[in-house]
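Quick one - inputs below.
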Amino acid sequence: EAGVTQFPSHSVIEKGQTVTLRCDPISGHDNLYWYRRVMGKEIKFLLHFVKESKQDESGMPNNRFLAERTGGTYSTLKVQPAELEDSGVYFCASSIQTGGSNEQFFGPGTRLTVL
Amino acid sequence: AQKVTQAQTEISVVEKEDVTLDCVYETRDTTYYLFWYKQPPSGELVFLIRRNSFDEQNEISGRYSWNFQKSTSSFNFTITASQVVDSAVYFCALSEFGGYQKVTFGTGTKLQVIP
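Output:
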């Protein structure tokens, strides 16, 4: 069974440009989470989808970030316009259901560098 | 609110030494999950262990062992006879039990094992 995949693995853009990150969760997983690690800091929660609905977006830093999950399958995270402080590694995770022993499986991350 | 503290930012050990990575957490929940993840230089997050808060039995897996002390809110991780391949950033994390379970991470401890 394929794990969580993320694309691209690495993106280098200039300040002011737009970047879209993609996450494909494990098939059948209703829950999809985005996290971000800025250099040297903790990995921070950004938001959580249950199917196509945003359940919790309390971690989204500002309105330059837009996450979607149309159809409840893959998700995209768009940063527009990108700023220098957006550089970091963006992780996606998925889980099959909420509650109980609901393990989140993490993707390999997308390393974003904003110059 | 949940919080995870990893006071050790970086640790260097010589190969074959034992090393303990500290983790202290805060939560108001009576039941919760604790995790350790490894992030090797390649960048992906590798799941190491999950522990339920109601199971304080320590666990050993090969050269890895975990010491969960609920009384001191600590979940320390020991690597015995360290190897160069253990060099990575290690994250301790916490999530609620049930619910939507967003994960709260510590800032990570960078371990360098010197040959």
